[in-house]
Amino acid sequence: MPSGRRLDLLDPTPFDWDDADLALGLARTYRWGGHSAWPLPLSVAQHSITVMLLRRAAGPVSPLEELRELLHDAEEGLLGFDAISVIKPFLGEAFRDLTRRLEHAVFLRYGLPAWEARAHAAHKRADRLAAATEAVHVAGWSIEEVRRTLKIRAAVLDADPLALHYGCTPWEPWPPALASERFLAELERLKHAVQLAPA
Question: Are 88 and 100 in contact (CB under 8 A)?
Answer without folding.
Answer: no
